[in-house]
Structure formats: C-alpha cells, structure tokens
Specification:
With 112 residues, this protein is of the alpha/beta class. It contains three helices and six strands. A hairpin with a 2-residue loop joins strand 1 (2-8) and strand 2. It starts with a strand and ends in a 12-residue tail after the last helix. The model has no long low-confidence stretch (mean pLDDT 92).
C-alpha cells in the first residue's frame, strides 16, 4: 500500500495543495512496515489535479493536515482514503503511526 504525505521542509505540509513535494511511502500493511520512500516534486497547483496525479502514482492513502471539501470528494472518487488533521511530522513517522493505528488526528485544518 502506498501512502502519500505532502511535504514542506522535510515535514508534513499543513497546506496540502501548495506543498513543495510528496513523500510516497510504500508499506506492507499486514506486517505494518515501511518498505521504501519515493519523493516527487508536486505538480503546479491546479484545483482538482492532485487526486488524479496521486492515484496515477499508486497512492491508496493520503495523510494531510487539511484539505478542501472538493479535494476530499475527488479522492473518494479515486478510491483513496484521506486522513486529515495530522500533525506536522516526518512522513515516515506519520506512515508508521497510520499502520499501527495510533495516528492522532484533529479537525481538518482547511476551511475551504
């Protein structure tokens, strides 16, 4: 399973649509382990583009600080699970917590 995390300065970017890159973390959910990481520069910001782009790169889960309602709908249409309200932390740490079922999330940090 591939987990996508928007990144800014090495940690989760609090503004999903304007991050500098995405950490794509390959995992084995059964063993709850991280197998590897690929970092890709984020494409230019264009409303509605990121859900398809991440689906094309194999993402099945997105961990974000906040995300607008339209993006949430588009991810659902692509069968991608979204976790919002995640803290600004290292992508591998967030992925490991997600796999362990211990990821602490709060309210969606986005208001649009």
């Amino acid at each position: 399973m591939r987990i996508a995390v928007p990144v800014e300065d090495g940690k989760l970017s609090v503004h999903f649509g304007h991050c500098e890159s995405f950490a794509l973390i390959d995992t084995d959910p059964g063993a709850r382990t991280i197998l590897g990481r690929e970092d890709l520069p984020a494409p230019p910001h264009e409303p509605g583009k990121l859900p398809l782009w991440l689906a094309e790169h194999g993402a099945k889960v997105v961990i974000a600080g906040g995300m607008g309602g339209r993006a949430l709908e588009l991810f659902a249409q692509h069968g991608i699970t979204v976790v919002v309200g995640a803290p600004s932390s290292a992508p591998e740490h967030l992925a490991a917590e997600y796999l362990a079922g211990t990821l602490q999330s709060t309210a969606n940090a986005c208001d649009h």
